[in-house]
Amino acid sequence: MKKIISVLSLPLAIAQLATAQQKFSISGTVTGQAPARYYLQYNNGEKYVTDSAAVINGRFKFEGTLPQTTPGVFSAALSKGLSGDRKEQAYLFLEPKAMTITVQNGDLSTTVLKGSVSNEDNMRLEKEKEAATAQYKPLLEALRNEKDHEKSAAIREQLAPYFETNSRLSRKFIREHHDAFLSLYLMRFEVGSMSLDSAKYYFNGLNTALKQSKDGQQIAKEIKQLEDGSPGSTAFNFSKKDINGQPLALADFRGKYVLLDFWASWCVPCRAGNPHLLELYKQYKDKGFEIISISDDDRNHDAWKKAVEKDGIGVWKHVLRGLDMEKRMKNLPNPDDTSDHFGIHSLPTQILIDPKGIIIARYGGGGEEHEAMDKKLKEVLGN
User: Fold this and answer.
1) Which domain-ending residue is among 75, 94, 115?
2) Which residues form the Thioredoxin domain (predicted)?
């Protein structure tokens, strides 16, 4: 595993394609033992809606308005979070039209929504992903229940191959379905782990309406951020307090080659790469080379400081990325988030900046990237 996705999109956080409200309805039928009520949660483009419908003689109905297709959660009972248990919740793609739902014996894993093309697309894709999904579910449950920081990191590492398998299937769908809403939805998840060229390729393949939608505009913004953090661009001049509470600005290091190391204490491949960074720092620190590690540990300062001490990397500079999770959840601007300015969505990522402040290389943190970084540093700083 070379990378860990640092921030994932939320299932219900996707914006709407348009703003004009249109009516939708869902007529439901349930056989066998059924709850007294079913619940439907979705974003109608103006607010987050939680609706409920009473079950009478095995039938129920939801009605509302949507600007266009949107993901939603159908459940038998409300909970504080999305459990992911298909017997308790079903993820659906709602469209502004008349739809039907059937549930067998009150088991939500049997839920079938008809009348939504996007939902049918998603069901076919989920069928292709079943093998990997079935294998990683126990790991996801273990991750939810694990309180130990380092054990959680190890579980994330085990999950990575399954996520990569599903990611390949998602990208295949996007390539083959340029007009599908689901392709746009999947892009929100995939763009963070794509290279700049790949992101442009997949995005440019979508039809014009999807690209011009609110979500399309958001994806375009993320691609622009990735471009701003890629070779040829001038590096964003951030200012922070370092791990010791001292002021630090990227501009202070003009005249040096600077490696920005985006990492986290919980990121297994990041920690595994630290010995290599230590070797590079020892080799080049007296030749005009500096490392600034930017940690994704804003919510756990103790873990950040312990990792720096344990890995012996306190010899170079350390700052936090500046993530404000409350702002992110509300989709509000977070200008202090350094990762956003460099288009960082996966860890580890390293960005090499020349003495004039221009980005000259970007690396994903794996073994072959280490070799490329070594070659580049040897080229610019000598043997």
Assistant:
1) 115
2) 229-382
- Alpha carbon distance 80, 82 (integer Å): 7
Question: Which of the two residues, 332 and 292, has the higher pLDDT score?
Answer: 292
The domain total for the chain is 3
Residue 347 has pLDDT above 70, yes or no: yes
Give the full edge-to-edge strand order of the sheet including 22-30: 59-66, 22-30, 98-104, 107-114
In the listed set 115, 140, 172, which residue is the last one of a domain according to the structure? 115
Q: What is the DSSP letter of 193?
A: G
Does residue 12 lie in a domain region?
no
Tokens of 205: 């393949």
Give domain status of residue 17, yes or no: no
d(CA 166, CA 8): 15
Query: What confidence score (pLDDT) does residue 341 get?
Result: 95
90: confidence class by pLDDT, cuts 50, 70, 90: very high
Residues 211 and 104 in one domain: no
Is 233 inside a domain boundary? no
Helix 181-190 crosses helix 149-176 at what angle (to 10 degrees)? Answer: 150
368 CB burial (10 A radius; 0-12, 13-18, 19+): exposed
Q: Same domain, yes or no, for 62 and 157?
A: no
Domain identity same for 341 and 255:
yes
Alpha-carbon span 182 to 170, nearest angstrom: 9
Mean pLDDT of the chain: 88
Residues 104 and 111: their CA atoms lie apart, in Å, by 7
The pLDDT, as a whole number, for residue 22 is: 93
3-state SS, residue 38: strand
pLDDT value of position 17: 47
- Residue 317's domain spans which residues? 239-381
Q: Per residue in 310-343, pLDDT tens?
A: 999 999 999 999 999 888 877 788 999 999 999 9
Which range has the worst mean pLDDT, 34-38, 90-94, 128-132? 128-132
